[in-house]
Structure formats: C-alpha cells, structure tokens
Amino acid sequence: MYKILLSALLALACNPFLAYGQLYCTNHTTQGVWLAIAYNFVEPTQPNCQINSWVTEGWLYVAPNDTAILSNFIGFDKHGGVKTNFFYYAYQVDGRDWSGPRKFLVDPNPHPVDPNRYDFRINDANLPEKHPNTDYVYVNFKTGVWGKDNSYTLVLSPDDQNDLPMTMKDKKNPFDANFGDSGGKSTPPPSNTAITPNSVLDH
Fold it and tell me: Are 100 and 143 a contacting pair, CB within 8 Å?
C-alpha cells in the first residue's frame, strides 16, 4: 500500500498536465466559522517526495450561508506542487467546533488577522520539534478530502458529528499525521478574544 501511494504522488509530480479542481467550504449554520486546513504537500521542484510532509494554513472566516474557497487546486499544479489528503478544523465563538483525531500545529494568534485570507502557513506542521520557541499549538483536525479529487465542497452543518478516534488500520496508513501525544502542545479552540469576527472587523 505504501509503494502504491508513493508511486501515485510521484506520477502526479512528474506529469505537468495533471490538474484537479478546487476545494470549497459552505457554512450551513447561523454563525460564522473560522477555519484552518492541513494537507500533504510536495514542493514542485522537490526531487525526493517526502510523503509525511504536512502544511497547515489558517484562519479563514466563512460567514453564515456563505461559501469560501479553501484551496485553488487539489492534486498537482506545476507552479504550486502537489496538495493531497486535506483535513480541516473549524470553530465558532460559542465553542462549537468541527474536529477529529489528527493533530497538526496551528498559530492560534496570528497578526494581523484578515478574515478573507489565510494569516499563517506552517510547513512540517506534524513535526513540533521543527518549530521550537514558537507559540504554535496542536489542534485536532477532521478528515476532509482523502487522496486527489475533482472540485469538492466541505459542508458545515449544525448537526455534524466530529470524527471518531483512529482505528489501528488508520494508524498504519503512511499518510497519517500525528495521532497521539508526541511532545507537542495541545490546546482548546483558538482564543475567542484573539480571533473572532468582531475583533477582526473592528480593525
């Protein structure tokens, strides 16, 4: 299975004609949400694919009953590299969140904050040892898009259920990020006083 997945990534990186759709999020709740994404990433010029290289980006604000674009491509782009296996974490200021068992690092208080674009990007977001002396914290991400796909929309609804804990089968998958404690700092949802629709719009 490992060799098959690695071969698929190599094929994507070596074929400049492979391009895939975009990733969107639609908020079907009555409150705005703040959202971060995580994805498996390979640089466009990287000679050796590191399949356990993960990137996180956040925070993007999605208004009630609105749709926002999370990634302008899924799969291979000759300028952007390879993006696959998307996860996401979303939260509302009242404490509701969309989460799962996969841990990635985020910046809980980026400055400045712009609700219409990502305010941080963390390379190697599954490796806390590469980010000493930072305020980055772990957040539990939910499965979004696994593998490569055409245009896809994540729909957030009030009755959504968060992901169950990983099974042993999940943990054996070479594309899994951190699924347990490995020395990184854990955290509840980012500070509501630091990143909220009101505080952003007041700037």
Answer: yes
What phi, psi does 169 have (nearest 5°)? -65, -40
**Distance, CA of 72 to CA of 13 (rounded, Å):** 17
Q: Round to whole Å and give the CA distance between 23 and 71.
A: 5
**pTM > 0.90:** no
Q: Residues 168, 44: contact at Cβ < 8 Å?
A: no
Q: Which tens digit of pLDDT belongs to each residue from 18-52?
A: 445 788 999 999 999 999 999 888 876 665 555 67
**Cβ contact 71:174 at 8 Å:** no
Could you write out the DSSP letters of every residue in 107-144? -SS-SS--TTS--EEEETTT-GGGSTTS--EEEEEEEE
State both tokens at 9: 């990534």
Which of helix, strand or coil describes residue 75? strand
- Structure-block tokens of residue 147: 């593998």
Show me where the domains of the chain are located: 2-201
Instruction: Give the sign of the dihedral formed by CA 177, CA 189, CA 32, CA 157.
Output: positive
Sign of CA dihedral 155, 39, 135, 129: positive
For tokens 């299975």, name the residue.
1
Question: In terms of Cα–Cα distance, which of 116, 101, 9, 140 is closest to 59?
Answer: 116
Cα separation, 43 vs 38, in Å, equals 15
SS3 content of the chain, % helix, strand, coil (to 5): 10, 35, 55
